[in-house]
Design brief:
Blueprint: E1 7-11, E2 20-25, E3 33-37, H1 49-52, E4 68-70, E5 76-78, H2 81-99, E6 104-108, H3 114-127, E7 133-135, H4 142-152, E8 170-174, H5 178-181, H6 190-194, E9 198-201, E10 217-220, H7 227-240, H8 246-252, E11 253-254, H9 256-264, H10 268-275, H11 279-289, E12 295-299, H12 301-304, H13 309-322, E13 332-335, E14 354-355, E15 359-360, H14 364-374, H15 388-393, E16 403-407, H16 411-414, H17 418-426, E17 430-435, E18 447-450, E19 459-462, E20 467-471, H18 484-494, H19 505-516, H20 528-531, E21 537-538, E22 563-564, E23 583-589, H21 605-610, E24 615-618, H22 620-626, E25 633-638, E26 641-649, E27 657-661, E28 675-678, E29 685-686, E30 690-698
Parallel strand pairs: 6-7, 6-16, 8-9, 8-12, 9-10, 11-22, 12-13, 16-17, 17-18, 23-27, 24-26
Antiparallel strand pairs: 1-2, 2-3, 4-5, 4-18, 14-15, 19-20, 20-21, 23-30, 25-26, 25-30, 28-29
Length: 700
């Protein structure tokens, strides 16, 4: 490998906005590189505090710099790479021989580069021969992806460039706190705010909801878990007030009659009773969306991370289709992807039912195409596996997964019902974790393999708008650290795997591009060299084309080119918690200062000092009823566990709801409380509607 240059243009290592940044090597500086925001359409030179401080992690004192192998007494010993990889290969071989190929599992991540995500899917299916691969995007984008696929035949988070939002006069933002999660994005809401048309739907008066104040828009504050009813109510109003775009529905969609019937019973007064959103607000929002001046509907995890998340995202799409917004070039529907490569991470084969190019693993022609690229017989590619929650439930069980390789994920903080996940990990014969740090999951591992960070590697990411971006190397990795491509190649060699496993990112990308050719997410016209020119590379980008900034302008991805309206029905909230005693609904979410499980951001001094621990938001009236004052330590508990957090008494939350951030571990881990129940279509867990009991624990 050639020496790293003194400077590099790249993108932020965290969220899917993929803000552009320039890195300059600073050997005598406080961090190995200095970070500067770079002009780019999504961030316009801006970065949030996570991006500004991202270089802190490169030289962090807690970084793992040599493979670690568990000792019999429970501690770790440093090991050579050969020793660590030989040990892993021996144990994997033994497990496969004794218990079958599916006794080995792989858990990937939405932060991996496209090259790593692609290679991981290939490695799992060919080198390990297992069907047991899935990834943490199942907890993030799976409901919106499933809804987009069944309505449009394709799932690209934003099927238009982010900049299109600048011209919008109305934006309905459902369940997304962008002011905290991706602050540079709010510049794209300025036009809608100036027109009085920013509509934010969130049970909390979040920092994004506050952007609607002073005449900038409307804040809808429904009860947690009632978003589907809210959307049916808006659809009802649009239809009954004659605001539906009948010409669009007749020429570009199917299924309107069934959706009309499903919305028919959700008249505004009934929706108000179920959601708490006033009729006047519902009517104002429906009329505003239909005013024809450029309306967008955007969903986020707040409405998607439910056991009915796919149906809720579908209801949002139905509303957009009934209004005639999608595929027009001046309005639209989109979902705001969360993880840095949440989009690319779900396109290249990390999902249990998928092959590269967003192809179904059960499709014989897809199997034949990918097998041809891999140089194997299609019969050797395993069939579909099981999604993340089910895979984690199999850990250590008879007939289940006995060895697990984890890449880019901290499941003992991020998965639902983490006590059960921890027990499963502890029951494994072998747990291998690839990470930069001893995350909470790595601390349970038998072997920890230290891997390169973003500034130390070449690769590509795909942003929330489906644009493929180059990640360029500014630094050489520390001596004992390796790339995951190298690790997979070395293990594949030891396991006598079929096919080849390049360690050169541009070569892996070229293979990925060939494997994706003809698929929904077609990268076949792309290469690192082309991306290095700064080309605006929106997929599908087939060979011989110039890419597709705006999808669906000439039809949807079905043979008849029509979008599918799909009738969805709420499951009546029979288990809604009675608001008595301390029984409340818990919603979980993110803070400005932290990212995902916090495995990285909790190690950045500026970020952890700003938000050192979890606080539980609780309404003043509720707090008074429970004898809790601001600053008390409260217990939040249910049958699965107890979280202890300082009370933040605030009017920014409904009286029947409490909020915990999910970035913390130990007794502050919000996922001690969440349940492993999943959406029947997407297998998304329920993260946003958990029944808990809240009580004062002690005053500090
Ligand atoms: Fe990084 Fe996202 Fe912050 Fe941009 S908004 S700097 S991509 S974390």
């Amino acid at each position: 490998m050639s020496a790293a240059p003194a400077a590099a243009d790249t993108h932020c290592p965290y969220c899917a906005l993929q803000c552009a940044m320039s890195l300059t090597v600073s050997p005598s500086g406080p961090t190995p590189v200095t970070v500067a925001g770079r002009a780019f359409p999504t961030n316009r030179g801006g970065l949030c505090k996570k991006g500004w401080t991202s270089a802190e992690l490169l030289g962090s004192a807690g970084r793992v710099l040599q493979p670690l192998v568990r000792r019999p007494d429970g501690g770790f010993d440093e090991a050579s790479w050969d020793a660590a990889l030989d040990l892993i290969a021996d144990r994997l071989r033994d497990s496969r021989a004794r218990f079958g190929a599916d006794s080995v599992g792989v858990f990937g991540g939405g932060g991996l580069t496209n090259e790593k995500a692609y290679q991981l899917g290939k490695f799992a299916r060919l080198a390990l021969g297992t069907s047991r691969i899935d990834y943490n995007g199942r907890f993030c984008m799976s409901s919106a992806a499933a809804a987009g696929n069944r309505a449009f035949g394709a799932d690209r988070g934003l099927p238009f460039p982010v900049e299109d939002l600048d011209a919008a006069t109305t934006i309905l933002l459902l369940g997304s706190n962008v002011a905290a999660t991706m602050p540079p994005f709010i510049a794209h809401l300025a036009g809608a705010r100036a027109a009085g048309g920013l509509i934010v739907c969130d049970p909390r008066r979040s920092s994004t909801a506050r952007l609607t104040e002073d005449g900038a828009g409307i804040h809808l504050q429904p009860a947690p878990g009632t978003d589907l009813i809210l959307l049916l109510g808006l659809t009802h109003i649009v239809i009954t007030e004659g605001l539906a775009d009948i010409g669009y529905l007749e020429s570009r969609t199917t299924g309107f009659d069934a959706v009309r019937r499903s919305a028919n019973v959700w008249w505004p007064e009934r929706v108000q009773a179920a959601t708490g959103v006033p009729v006047a607000q519902l009517r104002a929002v429906a009329r505003r969306l239909a005013d024809g001046r450029g309306s967008y509907i955007l969903t986020g995890r707040g409405v998607e991370q439910h056991v009915d998340g796919t149906d809720t995202a579908t209801a949002a799409i139905n509303l957009a289709l009934v209004l005639g917004l999608v595929g027009t070039g001046r309005s639209g529907y989109g979902t705001l992807t969360g993880q840095g490569n949440g989009q690319g991470g779900r396109e290249h084969g990390q999902k249990c039912d998928q092959l590269p190019g967003y192809r179904k693993i059960t499709d014989p022609s897809a199997r034949a195409h990918v097998a041809g690229v891999w140089g194997v017989d299609a019969a050797v590619i395993p069939g579909p596996g099981v999604p993340a929650v089910e895979l984690l439930a199999e850990l250590g069980r008879a007939g289940g997964v006995r060895c697990l390789l984890v890449h880019g994920s901290n499941v003992v903080v991020s998965a639902p019902d983490v006590s059960a996940v921890r027990a499963g990990l502890e029951a494994l014969d072998l747990l291998v974790v690839c990470d930069f740090f001893l995350s909470e999951t790595a601390l349970l591992a038998d072997v920890v393999l230290p891997v390169t960070q973003w500034a130390e590697e070449e690769g590509t990411m795909t942003s929330l708008e489906g644009r493929v971006l180059r990640r360029q190397r500014a630094l050489d990795a520390p001596a004992g650290v390796r790339s995951e491509l190298w690790i997979m190649a070395e293990l594949a060699r030891r396991l006598d795997a079929p096919s080849t496993y390049s360690t050169v990112p541009s070569e892996v990308f070229d293979e990925l591009a060939r494997a994706s050719a003809g698929g929904i997410a077609d990268y076949s016209g792309l290469s690192h060299a082309l991306l290095d020119t700064g080309a605006a590379a929106y997929w599908p980008f087939a060979a011989g084309t110039r890419g597709t900034p705006r999808l669906f302008l000439d039809g949807f991805a079905f043979p008849d080119r029509r979008a599918r309206l799909i009738a969805v029905y709420p499951r009546i909230n029979a288990d809604a918690p009675a608001q008595v005693g301390g029984v409340l609904t818990l919603i979980t979410g993110r803070l400005l200062e932290h990212y995902q499980s916090g495995a990285q951001t909790r190690r950045v001094p500026e970020l952890i000092n700003a938000r050192p621990e979890a606080t539980v938001q609780i309404h003043p009236a509720t707090a008074a009823r429970l004898g809790i004052v601001d600053g008390d330590i409260a217990s939040i508990s249910n049958a699965r566990g107890t979280v202890e957090a300082m009370a933040e008494v605030t009017i920014n939350i409904r009286h029947d709801t409490v909020f915990l951030p999910f970035h913390y571990a130990g007794s502050q881990c919000a996922n001690l409380l969440t349940e492993a129940a999943v959406d029947p279509v997407s297998a998304m867990p329920e993260f946003k509607r958990t029944v808990v009991t809240v009580a004062a624990l002690r005053a500090v």
